[in-house]
Design brief:
- The chain has 128 residues and is mainly alpha-helical.
- Helices cover 51% and strands 8% of the residues.
- It has a two-stranded parallel sheet with strand order 1-2.
């Protein structure tokens, strides 16, 4: 699964980077799914872009994934239509563990979803 995500990123990386830069230059807002923004992305943007980019990861706990896996899969295409991923709960737990580790290592902002998936927009405004 991770190899597929990595190859997908490298295929789209130059395009995604320029899309983000265009949005920043035009003072527009954009929400970009995390698989298109790799850890270490700060090296790809000059400081004048960095100050306008808010990077926030949503991290599910193992407990949350185990209790809500069917709901997560059922709602995977709510925002954008996805091809079937055939992801397992164990794959998702491993991926979220890696993402949490990277967020802590790189001092990135993240929201840890443990019991209830409810995101307070005021918290997002205070991040970064």
């Amino acid at each position: 699964m991770r190899e597929n995500m990595v190859s997908k990123f490298y295929l789209f990386a130059p395009v995604v980077k320029e899309i983000i830069k265009t949005y920043v230059e035009n003072g527009q807002s954009l929400i970009m799914e995390g698989c298109y923004i790799p850890f270490g992305r700060e090296k790809d943007f000059a400081d004048d872009y960095q100050c306008d980019i808010k990077y926030i990861c949503l991290i599910f706990s193992e407990e949350y994934i185990r209790q809500h896996f069917a709901d997560i899969v059922k709602n995977e295409s709510v925002i954008e239509t996805r091809l079937s991923t055939d992801i397992t709960a164990d794959d998702m737990i491993k991926s979220n563990g890696y993402n949490l580790e990277q967020c802590k290592l790189r001092n990135y902002n993240y929201i840890f979803i443990d019991h209830v998936y409810q995101i307070n927009h005021d918290i997002i405004e205070t991040l970064q």
